């Protein structure tokens, strides 16, 4: 069984090798501050097709294109509104994806046939160093969805990527270990194709932050833009997820640290605050499957901002697979 090469010590040399592998059409799983991504050369149709195969993901779902800095924005997008430039300046590198009108570089195989492209500069030393090494040998950008099977929990460690996708990778593919992701939930996706920004997927960059940066009111009107992360069944472990009820004997339990664990319940995480909740949530859901629990109860954090993104993912996880 092949499993990809696990690279635990990302030196300049190993990143140069990973960049060359991308150039040769291979796949490289890479750490980002949100979750781990499964990367391929964003201009290589065959390499990108392999991402879909490894993930088991429908071909009409667009991928996020990761770039090294906002200077490449104009290569990938056309008609960029000035509020999108403000957002890029304020929050890149960071947990934010901008959806913009695509340029000719962004082909159907990476945009899922849509006239727009999703772009992000990740805030992680390994991801940025890989992007820079890739640019040095003529690479343009790395297309990368979260490195999980379609509909499953996103990985926040390199070990989780290996457990999740190892059996589907080729020997030459690589998994780069950059430690646990520090944010823990996927980037905020912002549609920048109309007069005002619209949030397609909540994340660590909040509505307030977007409004403050752009001076515009965030639009909440309906859209027909397809976002697979907004499908109802997503982010789900094998175990059934229940929200905001008392856990029963034999169930798993995730809640803030000040909530007690009832007897005969497996406590999977006790984060001290909302930030830590986001950071440990996915690994705690994976832990439920490791313990072969049939069900896990989550007491959701209240409030807006990051808590909103946490509840968005948990709501979808609770719809099952
Ligand atoms: O934090 C993240 O965004 C992570 C890391 C690896 O960067 N990536 C991630 O990718 O979550 P993925 O593929 O699991 O989710 C990306 C979402 C999908 O729901 C996709 O539909 C949406 O981004 N997306 C990408 N391009 C889009 C576009 N042009 N228009 C609308 N949605 C788009
Ligand atoms: Mg995903």
CATH topology of the largest domain: DHBP synthase
> So what's the overall shape?
globular
Strand composition percent: 15-25%
Strand elements, count: 14
Helix count, per DSSP?
10
Structural class given helices, strands, pairing?
alpha/beta
Give the overall average pLDDT: 95
The appropriate CATH architecture of the largest domain is Alpha-Beta Complex
What's the CATH superfamily of the largest domain, by name?
A: DHBP synthase
For the record, the count of structural domains works out to: 2
Our Rg estimate from Cα atoms comes to 19 Å
Question: What series of H and E elements makes up the topology?
Answer: EHEEHEHHEHEHEHEEEHEEEHEH
What top-tier CATH class of the largest domain fits best? Alpha Beta
The major beta sheet can be summarized as: 10 strands, mixed
Low-pLDDT runs: none
Separation, N- and C-terminal Cα atoms: 26 Å
Question: What features would you describe in this structure?
Answer:
The protein folds into 2 domains: about 5-215, DHBP synthase (Alpha-Beta Complex); about 240-315, Rossmann fold (3-Layer(aba) Sandwich), CATH 3.40.50. It has a 10-stranded mixed β-sheet with strand order 1-8-2-3-7-4-6-5-9-10, with helices on both faces. A 4-stranded parallel β-sheet has the order 11-14-12-13. It starts with a strand and ends with a helix. It has about 325 residues and is of the alpha/beta class. It is built from 10 helices and 14 strands. Helix content is about 30%, strand content about 15%. The radius of gyration is 19 Å and the shape is globular. Strand 9 (about 190) and strand 10 (about 200) form a beta hairpin. The protein has helices spanning about 10-25, 45-55, 75, 80-90, 110, 125-135, 160-165, 205-215, 275-290, 305-315, and strands at about 5, 30, 35-40, 65, 95-100, 115-120, 140-145, 175, 190, 200, 240-245, 250-255, 265-270, 295-300. Bound molecules: threonylcarbamoyladenylate and magnesium ion (MG). The site of magnesium ion (MG) has 4 residues, from loops.
């Amino acid at each position: 069984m092949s499993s990809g090469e696990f690279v635990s010590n990302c030196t300049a040399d190993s990143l140069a090798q990973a960049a060359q592998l991308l150039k040769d059409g291979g796949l490289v799983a890479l750490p980002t501050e949100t979750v781990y991504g499964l990367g391929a050369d964003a201009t290589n149709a065959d390499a990108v097709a392999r991402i879909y195969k490894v993930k088991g993901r429908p071909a009409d779902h667009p991928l996020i294109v990761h770039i090294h800095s906002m200077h490449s924005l104009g290569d990938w997008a056309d008609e960029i509104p000035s509020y999108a430039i403000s957002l890029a300046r304020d929050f890149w590198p960071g947990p934010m994806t901008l959806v913009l009108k695509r340029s000719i570089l962004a082909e159907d195989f990476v945009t899922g046939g849509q006239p727009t492209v999703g772009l992000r500069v990740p805030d992680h030393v390994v991801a940025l160093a890989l992007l820079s090494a890739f640019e040095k040998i003529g690479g343009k950008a790395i297309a990368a969805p979260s490195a999980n099977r379609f509909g499953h929990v996103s990985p926040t460690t390199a070990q989780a990527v290996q457990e999740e996708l190892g059996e589907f990778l080729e020997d030459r593919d690589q998994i780069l270990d950059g430690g646990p992701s520090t944010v823990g939930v996927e980037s905020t996706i912002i549609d920048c194709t109309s007069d005002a920004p619209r949030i397609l997927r909540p994340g660590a960059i909040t509505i307030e932050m977007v409004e403050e940066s752009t001076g515009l009111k965030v639009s909440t009107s309906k859209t027909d833009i397809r976002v697979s992360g907004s499908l109802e069944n997503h982010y789900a472990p094998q175990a059934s997820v229940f929200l905001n009820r008392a856990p029963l004997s034999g169930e798993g339990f995730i809640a803030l640290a000040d909530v007690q664990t009832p007897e005969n319940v497996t406590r999977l995480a006790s984060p001290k605050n909302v930030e830590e909740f986001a950071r440990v949530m996915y690994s705690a859901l994976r832990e439920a499957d490791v313990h072969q629990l049939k069900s896990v109860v989550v007491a959701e954090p209240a409030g807006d901002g990051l808590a909103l993104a946490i509840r968005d993912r948990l709501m979808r996880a609770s719809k099952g697979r």
